[in-house]
Amino acid sequence: MLNYLNGTLGEEDRSIFEKEKAHDKELQERLELIEFTIRAVKMNGNKETIRRVQQEFIQEKLENKNFTGIATPGIEKKKMPVIFWLKIIAAVSITCLFLFTIYVLRNDGPSVYEARYISYEIAADWTLSTQENLLESLFIQGEFRQMFQAIAGRERERLSATELLLLGNAALELDSARASLAYLEQLGEIRDHTGSDDFHEELDFYLALTYLELENYHKALHLVEKIRKNETHRYSNNFSLLDQLSIKFRMLI
Question: What does the radius of gyration of the chain's CA atoms come to, in whole angstroms?
Fold first, then answer.
């Protein structure tokens, strides 16, 4: 029977076997059982399943009068759901990757800047000089251009840390990131020189925003990572992980 199924019988022997099979119902069923078993084992790749497959064949014969050995073994049906779910998982993964890529491509530095920018809020317990009081008053009133007029003629190096912070934020309010950078970097130099910890959180945040607006991604990423790692940082929740990944991606293109 195996030679018959494998097609290795000669024409004469094949003719004799087929004539015998045509009149012998038991031989037909045995042949169907062997054919069904071979197909099922090939699909599963495990010979230990032969007995179960044969039982499945007998059960199918009892339940379905039209069932034959060339029917699709039930074992194949059991594999389909696994393949189906693998396809679903793959499709979802590809979709998520596509959406993330689109998000990253659309979110350049200026986009993250626009999404994360918040106006600076002046602390209520400041002790200010007369000049600082003037800048504070103008800042609160939104008179940002007048702030720069008020310091006309003064060298930036002679401005106090408070004045530099206010002017840096005023420049951002006027959409002048380059002007803001000059004041904020000067504030950073003062802090480094004096060892003061004043305004360190504000400086981290607004410098990061300024670098993003100017598309200086290396410096922006350094500050964003610093802010996000410090849970006690005043602005630790202002940047998301997606923002951080977007900046990293921008560094690669």
Answer: 39
